[in-house]
Design a protein that fits this description.
Elements: H1 3-35, E1 67-68, H2 73-90, H3 101-104, E2 107-108, E3 114-116, H4 117-122, H5 124-131, H6 135-145, E4 146-147, E5 158-160, H7 161-172
Helix pairs in contact: 6-7
């Protein structure tokens, strides 16, 4: 066997190992970003933030997007109207165009664990009034629960509701953020 063939085989083996290591690293980063549930020490373990949690309507929690039973246009419209009534009842002097779309646009079948940042910030006065926590403190909790699109892909930041609501509950229990 010539030296050239030996070096070519060795180079191919090193390249293959490099590709395997890169793929394994990418999978680890992906897994960590999907199942990271306690960022910056916020709150207790609430499970993977990729899983929505259905909460009973509670003024002391940040509300998730409404859930429609099916993807039909009628079910989506009903869920959106129902949420609009809830929001308007909680803020009587509000007009519908002022409500962020992310708080009214329904998900289909299961709760979405994420909320657009504007929809979370919109709820700060309501949650502050219901909990006695200051708006500045709640905005700080929101800042700790902000997530960015996976692997730096384009998109808007969003808020992890399980993390945010657990942080609010911890603050109310005197455990801090």
């Amino acid at each position: 066997m010539s030296a050239v063939r030996v070096w070519a085989g060795l180079a191919a083996a090193v390249a293959a190992l490099g590709l395997i290591a890169a793929a394994a690293g990418a999978l680890l980063i992906l897994a960590a970003s999907l199942y990271h549930d306690n960022a910056a020490g916020v709150g207790a373990r609430v499970g993977p933030v990729s899983v929505g949690q259905r909460w009973a309507p509670n003024p002391r929690r940040f509300w998730e997007r409404p859930v429609a039973a099916s993807g039909s246009s009628g079910a989506l419209a009903r869920a959106s109207r129902r949420r609009q009534r809830e929001v308007l009842a909680s803020v009587p002097d509000l007009r519908p165009p002022a409500i962020p779309r992310g708080l009214l646009s329904p998900t289909v079948g299961a709760p979405d664990p994420n909320l657009p940042l504007a929809a979370a910030l919109f709820q700060v006065p309501r949650v502050a009034q219901a909990t006695g926590l200051t708006p500045a403190y709640l905005r700080g909790l929101i800042a700790l629960a902000i997530r960015h699109p996976l692997l730096g892909l384009p998109g808007s930041p969003y808020v992890s509701l399980p993390v945010l609501n657990a942080a609010v509950q911890n603050a109310l229990a005197g455990q801090g953020p």
